[in-house]
Structures are given as C-alpha cells and as structure tokens.
Amino acid sequence: MDSRSVVPLKDRDRVLYLLSWLAQRCEVPGLPPVQEEPVAYALLVLEKPVMCPMGSLVIGSKLDFDIHSPNCRMAFFGKVLSIVDPKDLKSLRLVKMKQKVGLMDRVDKQDPSLVICKDMFKADSDIQSFTGLKVLHEQSGMEGVLEGSFGQDGRIKVRFKEEIASLKLDAKGNVKGTERISLFFKKFDFEKSDAIIQ
C-alpha cells in the first residue's frame, strides 16, 4: 500500500524502503539531507481474504474502540499496489537498517592507523561476514575498515587511513576514555542469505 498515490512496485525494483530518511533519523553521517519524508509502504497480511481491486483505496478501522472515545478509530489508509502470496515474500525485498557499536581498546604500536576494538561482537560471533565493511569513529568522523578478528574474545582490528590524532593514549597504547565506533549495515527480510550489505 502507498499512502500518497499509486506507484507501481515494478518501477521501484519491488523494494519497500525508507532508507535515506531512516538512515538520517538514525544519524548515519555523510548522507545528503532529506527534504521530506519519503513515500511509505506497508505490507498487510490479513487473516481472511478481502475483495480489493488493484489501485483501490483501503481504509482500516479499529472498531473495538468506544464510539464516544476521543481517539481516532482509523488505523491506516492507502492504495493497493500489489498482491503478494503471504507464503512467498521473497519478492518483497524488505530492508532493515542495523547498527553495531563498540569501543576502541588500544592502538598498535608499530602501526598507529590500526586500532584494536572491543564490545562490538561476542566471542562466538562470525566476524568473517563483517570483514571489509566500513566502521566509523564517532568522535572524529573518520572511516576505517574492519580487517578481521583479534584474539578469541570478540575483539576486532580496524584500519583507518591515518592515525587518529584526537585519541588519548597511555604509555602502553591503551585508549583512555570512551571512544565509540559504529558499524552501519542492511539486511534483507524474508531471505535465507546471511549476506550483509552497507
């Protein structure tokens, strides 16, 4: 369903999305500003079949509200864009924005652009599927690349283009204070693949 007008899903690669707006709402840095909220889509899975021609306006009401209640009884409205089999939703490429957050632990003494980070993954996590993805140092805005795991306790290696000058380190190279890093990625619903995309 489309809350503004009929937009054929085939023209949108059958993708239901609000990515640019949601990413900005999640404060993902480096994105161009979004002027207005984009068109929103909803997947409705009904308990019983309902006769609705394509392109027709559908209004859903909450009839269990008291008629004298000041609350609005209208639950949703929009135009029918596509009919989908609820047992096969792979054709709807629904995307979920995800974020993992960790902390910088220490800087490599031989290579100051390499930082060991912690608390982003558990010890038994499959870090291999995240290798090569971009990681953001929140305080400086610098981007790094996740190179792989470090040890067996869920720590990771992140390589930045250059040394982060704003980091405060002790004599052993341990990071003082709380220096957060973030990893933003997307996952497709209704797909069995564990592929992670940025």
Automatic annotation (TrEMBL):
Residues 92-166 form the Selenocysteine-specific elongation factor C-terminal RIFT domain. It comes from Symbiodinium pilosum. This is Eefsec protein. InterPro entries: eEFSec_C (IPR049394), eEFSec_III (IPR049393). It holds the Pfam family eEFSec_4th. Residues 39-78 form the Selenocysteine-specific elongation factor 3rd domain. It comes from the Eukaryota.
